């Protein structure tokens, strides 16, 4: 498609193609898609486990060398070719349709389980409107003589998460049946999503005014509240204390690269789609840089806020442990109160140990140390953070705010995921053209809702981690790598440079040339190989909550049954293999049916 | 056996443990025995305290009012204490945690269970709102489709307006936010 043809196409499409009401909606939608739950519960974990402040160095370097170029590429190609995640690849070359199909499959896999996480968040949100919060105390057992044994052996937050929310089974084979309360929340989550995407970006564009901005408001409120709590600054210090020796380890760099990649929601097809609704002369270069910076800053900001609260929780736990020990010592040695305080605790313990060693050994005091929690994912949000909230005054308010924030973060990411499914489905002409948009989105939501019922069984949590680990990791890397190679070497970097010059007025400078041609593809390649090797070489184990096991309440590790390998292959293998397989299939088909419309480019590149 | 932890409970407002406080203790215990045991007239003299430590912990026994050398059965004393626990606690401005009886665990209060779980109410509100919203949007889009079919001419005018207003590039080459 020549540049003049693009401009005239834009005019023809004016009535048909959706477009943004204003630039703000577009930016907010992209920011909402990129900023998601990972910024809140994956980045702080990586930061703390890879040397604190030192992790910023690989993170920022890879943000600039990997994130921004890939983002600019997706924005530019979408804006230029004015098609969604599948159409752009079909237009570059019909044989590349496999990339689009792969990214549609990945978006589908991820949408299925991501909305279940939102259902969990909604369940906690609905349960936050009561005082005291239900996860702050154990329920009584049947004959009211004490607390439920499973809860007593673990903790109220663990019990609420594993038993009252998930009702989890000890293994993935036992499905435990559907949990009706989760089914209700699941339907609610899909209904809320449906009402926001019912007319495509017309409704989504309005919804993002709230869903993309509210998390920042809540984070700021939590920051202010967090800083007034005791021990919060220790938490932040712990998070950012740099340990420069971590920089020498390759796993740090690879984790940073993977985090940058997943955090930008690349290769879903959603970003390409969103930018295709822009006008041709929109400055996509500037957008890419701005959104990358916002994403990076949000990760750091969210990490700071989370760690003020975690620092508070760790300090409180330490104080409680200390008071408990002091009380035990006072009782056993019959000392008046006030003899042992926090400050002279160590000396007193030393003295008592020397004077009465036998008695002391029998006491078996727990050593109290101020270690913050190295935890990520759902454990961080639903166990650690909820526990911290119960210790803050006026807990229900904080719980409601926290879960509304998580809900908004998740929902705005879902908008992008769903876009990555809907637009390819329309391009593939799965739905009849006469169907209105509301019906298309409705059917998609209903089908995904029904398939998503897998995750609401007793074993649902295990299925979800399976999907997350295998369905959402390797295929994305494969698609992104193929995207780069296709645009740079098949579409042609010179043609791409000319397109960008036409769109924004100047040719991309040396930085973009270097990163697109060499640096970013190399980085993607290394990360892909690393992931592939690690995943293949590690044993297929998963963590379970088993009240019968010896290790209870720590999670027990079990091996996956053999048939899970089939599922893993379907999740990870099929989308990745779709790229070459579809190429081969189309190559064969087109040599036989030369004149078929599928085989020629719609607005041919070579005309 | 009794254990008092006054400082940890009251902090700055802690009172000093002295003879008068001990007297109050013996009086409350006599009250407990009178009310919840066999109804005999127990007196302060019937509560015997021994082995007091600076920790503020001590042992005590209760003698029968009829015969000073006869000790009341431990189980009956425990039962009386358990039933009047809250009164004894509040007499000393303490709680079950800070006023410990070795051997008598605190009775647990059954948590209040509301008839409708609160989460169902929140869920109902949200689903109601969402359902209403979906219905409104679907009805309005059906109406809009109906109007578009009848007003074909107006659609073309609207399309040409859209061309004029659409591209950002008309005014400035670089899109400002």
Automatic annotation (TrEMBL), chain A:
Keyword match DNA damage: no
A single MF term (Gene Ontology): metal ion binding
GO (cellular component) term, any one: brush border membrane
Protein location: Membrane
InterPro entries: Na/ntran_symport (IPR000175), Neutral_aa_SLC6 (IPR002438), SNS_sf (IPR037272)
Secretion signal span: none
A biological process term (GO) from this entry: sodium ion transmembrane transport
Highest taxon above the source species: Eukaryota
Keywords: Glycoprotein, Membrane, Metal-binding, Sodium, Symport, Transmembrane, Transmembrane helix, Transport
Bilayer disposition of the protein: Multi-pass membrane protein
Transmembrane portions of the chain: 26-43, 55-77, 98-126, 178-195, 207-227, 260-277, 289-310, 397-418, 439-458, 470-493, 514-533, 562-589
NCBIfam families assigned: Na_transp
Protein name per its UniProtKB record: Transporter
Species assigned in the record: Cyclopterus lumpus
Automatic annotation (TrEMBL), chain B:
Domain Collectrin-like: 1-177
Protein name, as recorded: Collectrin, amino acid transport regulator
Chief location bin: membrane
Subcellular location as annotated: Cell membrane
Regions crossing the membrane: 119-139
Alphabetized UniProt keyword annotations: Cell membrane, Glycoprotein, Membrane, Phosphoprotein, Signal, Transmembrane, Transmembrane helix
Region of interest called Disordered, as start-end residue ranges on this chain: 146-177
InterPro entries per UniProt: Collectrin, Collectrin_dom
A Pfam family reported for this protein in Swiss-Prot or TrEMBL: Collectrin
Gene Ontology, cellular component aspect: extracellular exosome; plasma membrane
GO biological process: positive regulation of amino acid transport
Domain of life: Eukaryota
Record membrane topology: Single-pass type I membrane protein
Signal sequence region: none
Source species: Cyclopterus lumpus
PROSITE patterns referenced in this protein's UniProt entry, alphabetically: COLLECTRIN_LIKE
Stretches with biased composition (Basic and acidic residues): 146-156
